[in-house]
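Morning run. Coffee first, then this:
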Amino acid sequence: MPLFDRILIVDWSGAGQPVTGKNSLWACLARREGDGHAIEWIENFSTRHVFMQRLNTVVASAVTRGERLLCGFDFAFGYPAGTAERLTGKSDWRTLWRRIASEIEDGPDNRNNRFEVASRWNATHFAGEPRFWGRPHQHVYPDLSDRKPAAPQTAPLAFRKSELFAKGAKSIWQLSYNGSVGSQTLLGIARLSRFLDESHYCDQVAVWPFETGFSASFEKPVVFAEIYPSLFPLAASDEVKDAVQVRTVAEAFSRFDADGRLSALLARPPMLSDEEVTASTTEEGWVLGIGHRALEFAGGDTPLWPAGHLPHKGGERTAACADLASDVPNSSMTSGTSFSDSAVVAEAATRHTPLSPLVGEMSQRDRGGYSA
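And here it is:
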């Protein structure tokens, strides 16, 4: 039996002014119809403020109708283990979300202070070993560099466990330049945190896997989850890529829900240790679908992972997963090496072939991955 009546997929934006079209905020709502599904709408939102009004309407409608709703957002729901302790004194995702929401200012016109906050936190919480990096070249912030710092050797590290399995994933600490997700994460967490504290329907929402565990048994009708749209290949189209992407993911998850795979994707990723499960459900979060690659062969027409790309400008990407693994202290990528327990996930990530970067994916200042 399907878990959800409607699925909302959101391609978030870290824009600093109202913007539409390419690289702006897009969303798609799919509804279940019998054994199939239909796209209810695809819309481009000029600001995060306008989208949040729509989100409240969608959630309200689901609750009023007695429907179940999955909302997938393509920004990180957590930071590498140890971040919450540094910033709040508690290893707790909700405390960190509220701390972010208390300091991030994000106006109705998308103007925000994310770079100022990151600079301040580098100085006060990561003195001598900055984590946040990347900024507009025309602006200078005292403790926020436009260059990538050395890979941290103590917690919090550069990547969460889930990102070691997402090909091409950028470090959450990167706030600017092509492919970065850091700005979207700060702004997205701030918005969702305020929604959970202020919406009339906040008590009807559960955040996966923080409040649900790795489970498909939900007491609340609305579930928020982190997604990674690049897990899905896109059909060739003349449409804006973001529009194609939200529709593709909404349709894929709808099909997964109909045939039972979505329930399996919400379950515990099989390669995680008990300690890693605890970190994921209390602080780091997880990406819906990561770690369940085998399910793409379970009777589906939509794979969970892109098939890959031919090399673009600059040729094939060098071992991206090796770069990720280098962020794990005491790990080695040489053949025949026995990995320590702390590097098991990084080692596992190298068993999948990395993708080539898309044209223009990396700027001159961003070489991708951390080097030890």
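DSSP finds ten helices and six strands in the chain. Good start to the day.
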